[in-house]
Amino acid sequence: MAIRVFARVVETGGFTKAADSLGIPLATASKIIQDLEAELKVKLLRRTTRMVAVTPEGAAYYDRTLPLLHALDEVNASFGVENASPAGKIRIGVSASLASSFLIPVLPAFHARYPDVEVELCVRDGFTDMIQEGIDCTVRGGPMRDESLVAREVGRASWTTCATPEYIARHGMPADIADLGRNHILVGYISQRTGRVAPSPFGVGSAATEVQPNAFLSVNEGNAHLAAGLAGIGIIHLFSFKVRPYIESGRLVAFLEDWRPPPYPLHVVYPQNRHLSQRLRIFIDWLVEVFDELDPGQKQKAKAGAASRKRG
What we know:
It is a single chain. The chain is α+β, with helices and mostly antiparallel strands. The chain folds into three domains: 2-79, Winged helix-like DNA-binding domain superfamily/Winged helix DNA-binding domain (Arc Repressor Mutant, subunit A, Orthogonal Bundle), CATH 1.10.10.10; 86-156 and 265-311, Periplasmic binding protein-like II (D-Maltodextrin-Binding Protein, domain 2), CATH 3.40.190.10; 159-259, D-Maltodextrin-Binding Protein, domain 2, CATH 3.40.190. It contains twelve helices and 15 strands. The termini are far apart.
């Protein structure tokens, strides 16, 4: 236990976050480290009122003991301790858009299957340091460029272009992409990566193109983007799972479906040196399983494509 507590202090950068992630009192974590240092007769951590720093001896101890922790976890898992009844807390980072429109609504099914696993959702659109923040994994969209992270694709989200019936009554329905760019109002979405309004993608392959939004309003979050469309401010171009309920109810009308861009990949991401507990592995596998509920159209298209290739 002492080695595990020490590793979490190093990874999270402090006693409070380490204690929280392990589910133990702060005083207990501090006492465990003091006893470990006394047993080893070496200073592993340097404490100040503002921070906790790892000493050179502490860094060497962490590097040599981390593989032992991973090996112990593998041994425990091999005996089926968690396989039989996975239990404990997992901390998942997810955007507000995915949390509200998809993950939270399907979590009751996960709880029914694994009642002893506690899920803590950390909801926001950006995570700078997963280890320091004590996040087990995050769900991210787009291509993964950070080589320090392991990324597993869990699914792909299709796009839908739509507007309210009132907007269409006032402005008409775009006939094509050129008409959309010239004669219509497209609500902007601000990229978290660049801080600028991102052009909206349309089409596939040689027909791929982009349209620059031109509404008076731009937003940087998916729920706000949807709200702008529902308010009739303009056309919105966003993930199908966000707008599907409103299209089915008639509050939004979809168009330009032949101009949909390629689906957007979604990944579960975690640090390379993070050993996956069995409960986290189960959660990730479950995400892959339920993604069909997020975008069932993607599954149907994949099956149709496979059948077509088989016939060919």
